[in-house]
Amino acid sequence: MTAAGRPDRESALRLARKTFNARQRVEVNDLAAALGVNRVTIYRWLGDRDAILAEVVWRLGERTMLDAYASAAGTGGTRIANTMSAFVRQTLAHAGMRHFLTNETETALRVLTRGGHTFQPRLVALVEQLLTRERDAGALPAGDIDAHDLAYLCVRVGESFVYTDAITGEPPDPDRAERALRYLLR
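Predicted structure:
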């Protein structure tokens, strides 16, 4: 809400995040009704449902990744592998995310893995920043792959083990993700 108590973009996002975290379906009509605005206002502020979900998940994911990096042990590839492993574990442990992945699998995969919805490109860019930070500190050699491509690989490896049930029918496995990330970043 604005200082005057009127709903605004941020209050709509807070409500969407609260709804998501409560394992409820985020719907444009419900947000509009709860805020006392019309659907067009929600679309103008946030875009369509996929864009809203992408923004909600991005805000949760960004904070999770930054916290994981801040508390990760090691340096260089070890620190990035620890960060990504913690991110995968926390993603799988988040009740709202598990509900989203389980109950809206097609929507979740579309929102989380397609570039047009802004989640994955932002996540890749964030991991690239962390890799660059480690390289600039001299803790991670430049190697034969640039930071963007390595970040993309790290994100895709993490996704492979978070969305495994939707892709192959196997249960998600953060231990397998950790081993693969450690191998990639050794």
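Summary: The radius of gyration is 18 Å.
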